[in-house]
Predict the structure of TAXI family TRAP transporter solute-binding subunit.
Amino acid sequence: MGAGLGAVGVALAGCSGGSGPVRRLRLATGPEGGPYNAFGKALAQAVAASVSRLEIVPVSTSASVNNLRKLDDGSVELALAMADAAEDAVLGRESFTRPAAVTALARVYVNYTHLLVPADGPVRSVRDLAGRPVAAGATGSGVQVVAGRVLRSAGLSDGPAATREQQLGLAASAAALREGAVDAVFWSGGVPTPALSDLARELPLRFLPLDDHVGALRQSHGPVYTAVTLPAGVYGLAEPVGTIGVGNYLLARDDVPQGATRELLRVVFERWSDLLREVTAGARLEPRFAISTGQVPLHPGAVTYYRSVYG
């Protein structure tokens, strides 16, 4: 492993301009079968199909918080993460004991927070989760961050009303709901998320509205949270359901060469429809959207790219 990481370092250090060795960048994604993993693989394929001197190497992880730690410790050069976790990393709060070496390349799409329960069950609101077992995202995931904040906002994180949070990834969460091992599942991802579409065909689901919690989350954690809507038709929904939106950032260490970040962004903007096809339906990637990265500073190479292309 040490020799392999050393080879990556040599490739990074020895490449300049449009010639020379291929520059390999490791990208922390998410678990196999998840949207980050799908985006990472699609990005690696898009870069390989271009004339770029880059090679993207997707690395499977438990997602956002884990990715940010890997980015900070230098075990990857690129990462995907939810905006709330990324701001925590930059500011050195919550899961991070100090500010992390993290910069943004683009805000690429919005995650929709899903809170789903069996349609024929007793849970009809967040308050009804008091004392119940809830799948609240895998350890080190962004789902875990937003789920914990929603439950705190609802007064369900401690005391006699506290839910019994279980740290499960998406596949395990779906299986636990199907088997009755949990009464609810939190998930944050694109719409529709294929695994939840599959689950909805097996088990009638109710999606609980969360938009009433947006104001409290914004007050406590800033404008990374927005009100969005799960549209009618997805997952068999007869009516839209208001929920919480959180941006997803493509991130880089600040020591990644500017030429590499500019070349990567060129591919991202040329192939964005391919990158988002398996992640979230109907999304578009636009510069005014992409540069909205809040407290997370843009990488200098990203700043140069946006100025050169869009003025």
